[in-house]
Amino acid sequence: MIDSALLSHLHDLERRDGNGIHAVRKFLTPAEAAEVSRIFGPRAALEGGFRDAERVVPIFAREYAPEDYLAAVELRFRPQDSLSHRDILGAVLGLGLEREVLGDIAVGEGVARLVCLARIAGFIVENLEQAGKVGLYAERIPLAALPELTKELREQRGTVASLRLDALLAEAFRCSRGTAAELLAQRLVQLRHEECRDGDAKVREGDIISVRGKGRVKLLHAGEPTRKGRIWVTIGHYQ
């Protein structure tokens, strides 16, 4: 659920739109974006720079240019160096920035691209020089130069007793059902971008499961039961 303070602020932005005032507060999480879309519908434009971005900013305006609010930064490094999404995110946050000023990050061979609020793009370009021990060269690029956002998944195949959330957690993160129950009780698990503490919750193909501190997975495929009644599943791990 979206918190009451943010919801109140968004309603205030919607009212200001009638006076021609445009404002963006922060990037929304996928769960917040889904809730804003449900509440405000087309009145709130959700922009994330990348096509099909997960993290987006709400814009209340009759006319606007995304570049007024968002910026894209390209980070280049030696192709022989290997950097992950987590490495880039950690390096940017290490500059003292909050996660809410950053959008999606796409990492490829020798290059990473991120979207941020326009007001902090210059700060990132001027100060981001390395991720760990890997040197970076940062420059601002047009939003139109962003490539298609792709999410690389490492596939894992196995069987589960059922498509319950606790069973999928145990299989995906190689832990016991008891440990899965603890993760749920500690409110560390999100299903379909919303916090979930119900181990009985049914997981469907395409659903994303996130565990704070452990990562994110997607149920790619659920097959027919085996002779012993277990279900073959293919799970994708976000890199």
Can you give me a brief rundown of this structure?
The longest helix has 14 residues, at 4-17. This protein has three domains: 4-63, no CATH class; 68-145, Alpha-Beta Plaits (2-Layer Sandwich); 153-238, Structural Genomics Hypothetical 15.5 Kd Protein In mrcA-pckA Intergenic Region, Chain A (Roll), CATH 3.10.290.10. It contains six helices and 14 strands.
Write the topology of this structure.
Elements: H1 4-17, H2 30-40, E1 45-47, E2 57-59, E3 70-76, H3 85-93, E4 102-108, E5 111-117, H4 121-127, E6 130-131, E7 134-135, E8 137-141, E9 153-160, H5 165-172, H6 177-185, E10 189-191, E11 194-195, E12 208-211, E13 215-225, E14 231-238
Antiparallel strand pairs: 1-2, 3-5, 3-8, 4-5, 6-7, 9-14, 10-11, 10-12, 12-13, 13-14
Helix pairs in contact: 5-6
- What is the H-and-E element order? HHEEEHEEHEEEEHHEEEEE
Show unreliable segments. none
If you consult CATH, what is the topology of the largest domain? Structural Genomics Hypothetical 15.5 Kd Protein In mrcA-pckA Intergenic Region, Chain A
What structural category arises from helix and sheet content?
alpha+beta
Sheet bearing the most strands, described? 6 strands, antiparallel
How many strand elements?
14
What's the gyration radius in Å? 20 Å
**What is the residue-averaged pLDDT?**
90
Number of domains: 3
Count of discrete alpha- or pi-helical segments spanning 4 or more residues: 6
Percent of residues in helices? 10-25%
What is the class of the largest domain in the CATH system? Alpha Beta
Report the CATH architecture of the largest domain. Roll
Distance between the termini: 27 Å
Look at the structure and name the CATH superfamily of the largest domain: RNA-binding S4 domain
